[in-house]
Write a structure and sequence with these properties.
alpha+beta, 128 residues
């Protein structure tokens, strides 16, 4: 192979570095978002990322939402993550739940709108 052929081949290769990974349009669930410059120690740049979901817990009058999102590939993966987290917490929640009270866990989308909710309700059924 001649030097000119190698140069032409190298130019073609540099133009085709994984085009299927870097060219849009991107299909859901992936979105382009800016990377966090502080986390990477440099300038922010667009990166391909999965949707972020946030947890919110409500217990009586108290409510709090996570500041840090969890990446999930789709709604099914988000539901699985939520039920796994809730299952890990359920025993301690039920031991501390007061009579006639409610505990809720919500999974919020990137716009901080509820997508899923799990409720644990403690009700007194006697008519005293």
């Amino acid at each position: 192979m001649s030097a000119s052929q190698l140069t032409a081949l190298a130019g073609e290769a540099s133009d085709r570095i994984l085009p299927e990974l870097i060219q849009g349009p991107f299909a859901p669930p992936f979105t382009l978002r800016s990377s966090n410059p502080a986390a990477w120690g440099g300038q922010g740049s667009p990166v391909l990322a999965m949707p972020l979901y946030f947890f919110r817990i409500r217990n009586g009058h108290f409510s709090g939402a996570s500041e840090y999102g969890t990446e999930c590939a789709d709604r099914n993966a988000a539901w699985k993550e939520m039920t796994t987290v809730c299952a890990d917490m359920a025993s301690s929640i039920s031991r501390k739940l007061a009579e006639n009270s409610e505990w809720q866990m919500e999974l919020l989308d990137e716009a901080r709108q509820p997508v899923f909710r799990i409720r644990i309700v403690a009700e007194s059924l006697d008519q005293a």
